[in-house]
Design a protein that fits this description.
425 residues, Cytochrome Bc1 Complex, Chain A, domain 1, 2 domains
Length: 425
């Protein structure tokens, strides 16, 4: 298959005097602008005895600054019909919004204020604490979440940052104080770890001028780095059952530790995962377990590499009486692909599908901003969207087969199941 050349994005990257990065992409989708500010302040960097601190900070960071009260921030957003979003993962915290182009400067200044100067009012801290505790209790009653969190712990260990629940536990959340939130913010938020992406109907010069006005005078010590702790390779199969007698469905989470995002074999693993559990309505997994045998409400796989080796996770929701059969069917698909690799037509169709899906990653201001933030975080280059089709097309049958053979071993899988015992179903 020949990959046609595409024009791609044309972002401008500018570094402020204090080291903050600004990336601007002009678009003409609509008279709107998406602003995202990402910092290296995810769960990896929180103290080991305060799991959930990063998540807590993400819930309270917009609840008042030195210049604006929580009510003033909410009113400024409501008046413009804008929602401020704060997301947290293992490595980053991101503050973002989409606004009308005419409101760009005002909303950019508000995001700058939220990033630089939160004050964590005690009443807001306690309100958010109660909300987080409620959310954790809801997670504890959700078989899909319980299975997913248990799998991460099986794969990485309870003490590894990748193996801990992102929201923390009720016990750790109850111990987080206003002072610990302020200390974490002070230790992680700095220009050297800030990546600003602006996408929309705004000129590059206007965006850079605005970024300079809001952030150029910000000074803070460079955050200390923390390497992802080492992960032991699994030599045996691990399985855990979490009894939830009052539920009508069982959720299965089955997986492996894979590779980092910057591993040269990343694109082969991406193609392999698509064949296993993504292509069409869910790849080989859904074709067998859901379509052919009709014993799963859903079945798919996901591949999530990061700075450290990320997981490949297979998920399935089934009638409790079908758990053993479903796990057995997953084993069969995993072992078959791992032993024999993909078929020629399967590989060609999957690569064509992935290449054809790339334009959908760049259809909106929000999706472009997310793509550029990811490219910046991993150092993939501003031309990554233009190179991506060729990188996928270059994946060979031998590479995919080698990746599948190295990873897809049922005897080394981790399996977590949450739901009612069969006799309670």
């Amino acid at each position: 298959m020949t990959v046609a050349a595409i024009s791609g994005l044309s972002p401008l990257r500018h570094v402020l005097s204090n080291g903050a990065n600004v990336i601007v992409q002009e678009t003409a989708f609509s008279p709107a602008v998406t602003i995202t500010a990402a910092l290296h302040a995810g769960g990896l960097y929180e103290p080991d005895n305060l799991t959930g601190l990063a998540w807590f900070l993400g819930r309270v960071i917009d609840r008042g600054t030195a210049a604006r009260s929580a009510d003033a921030i909410a009113e400024a957003l409501d008046d413009r019909g804008v929602t401020l979003r704060v997301s947290v993962n293992r490595h980053t915290m991101m503050v973002s919004c989409t606004c009308l182009a005419e409101d760009f400067e005002d909303l950019f200044a508000l995001i700058g204020d939220v990033v630089r100067g939160p004050v964590f009012p005690p009443a807001e801290v306690e309100k958010r604490r109660a909300e987080i505790v409620t959310a954790i209790r809801q997670d504890q009653d959700n078989p899909a979440v319980r299975a997913s969190e248990a799998l991460q712990q099986l794969l990485y260990g309870a003490d590894h940052p990748y193996g801990r629940p992102g929201k923390g536990t009720i016990e750790t959340v109850e111990r987080i104080t206003r002072e610990s939130l302020a200390a974490f913010h002070a230790s992680r938020f700095a220009p050297s770890s800030l990546s600003l992406v602006v996408v929309g109907e705004v000129s590059q010069a206007r965006a850079i001028d605005c970024a300079s006005e809001v952030f150029d005078d910000w000074t803070a010590a460079e955050p200390a780095d923390r390497a992802v702790p080492p992960i032991e390779s699994a030599a045996t199969r691990r399985q855990l059952f979490i009894p939830m007698p009052d539920k009508s469905q069982s959720d299965i989470a089955y997986g492996f530790v894979t590779i980092s995002r910057l591993d040269p074999e990343y694109y082969a693993y991406w193609v392999m995962n698509n064949i296993l559990g993504q292509f069409g309505l869910g790849g080989r997994l859904a074709e067998n377990i859901r379509e052919r045998q009709g014993m799963a409400y859903y079945a798919f796989s996901g591949f999530d590499p990061s700075i450290g080796p990320g997981p490949l996770v297979i998920r399935a929701g089934v009638d409790p009486r079908n758990v053993e059969r479903a796990v057995g069917a997953i084993d069969v698909e995993v072992e078959t692909l791992g032993t024999h690799g993909p078929a020629d037509q399967e590989l060609a169709e999957t690569k064509q599908f992935l290449i054809g899906s790339i334009p959908r990653l760049l259809e909106t201001n929000q999706s472009i901003a997310a793509f550029l933030q990811t490219s910046e975080f991993f150092g993939l280059g501003l031309d990554h969207d233009r190179r991506l089709p060729g990188l996928v097309e270059a994946v060979t049958m031998e590479q995919v087969a080698r990746a599948a053979q190295a990873l897809l071993r049922p005897d080394r899988a981790a399996v977590a199941i949450a739901g009612p015992p069969v006799e309670a179903a």
